[in-house]
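Pipeline run #58 for the internal structure catalog. This entry was flagged by the ingest filter as a single-chain record with no existing model, so it goes straight to prediction. Upstream metadata was stripped on purpose; only the residue string is passed forward. Reviewer on rotation: M.T. Logging verbosity set to normal.
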Amino acid sequence: MLRLVLGRLDYGGITTGVTFRFTGDARALSGVPDARLNALGKALINRVFRELNINCDSTHLESLSQVFEDCGFAMPASVKFTSEFNTDELKAILHSAPISIIEPISTIIGLALASSLRVNVEFYSDLWPRLTDALAQLKALGIDIAVHSSVFDVNRVFIFDEVIRRLVRIPRIDELRETTEFNSRVEVIGVSRRFVEVPARQFSLAEPTEAWVSNDVVNAVEVLIKDLGGVATLKALGDLVGQEAVIKALSMGYVVFNPSDMTVRATTKALTLIRRLGWSSDVHKETRAD
């Protein structure tokens, strides 16, 4: 069952699996399940990246957390992951995970969990009209997917088995005296069309956390700018800070690579990072040790 829920974040679209809503009838997880990605999960994540022109690739990554580590430059916030989950339990009862509804975080996590864990998933997405092919692929898995959104596209809604939308009164001048209340009424469109009273329920959402830059990347940027003058050969910088740190800094846009002379150069983004930090990673480590 593929379900679209419009304008009612409190509406429960699934009864088991993983939801972004924190409600009284769901068991809270300490983080987002760090799913081991299968081929479909990687393909769906890359589909989102291509749609948004994000220069990142999940093809050779193993887990969902690695996607957010390697492609963190494209994410507006950080995500807390957990390995303490049981897939069978996720399939048996409803669990809440701290999934921010900020895009593209919510859509990527929703697609990845559904495809890689094969559990019911409820997530928020305003990108869904651009990803109907991805939703069709999920539909073939035979699991329940509930997509919450504020966007309705009448030309692309046919991918869903059922649409639940909040009734919104847009009065005309000659209707201003009417007192009809639509606050708890929703329209359900599926094999039939019906109007249902669904009282609003208490719920809460995970707030986004500040995007995080790892210490090895900060160190690579500092060494390149402060010790090497902002330009160095790829080998020289790699020998000083490690090739992995250099690759991360490249993927995050802090340095650029010139293949003609095999040099790396600090970008304006890197200069901004150093200026805003105002202290070196060595001082940071000493402070934490104290």
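catalog note: The first strand starts at residue 2 and ends at 6.
catalog note: Residues 23 and 256 are 45 Å apart (CA to CA).
status: ready for reviewer M.T.
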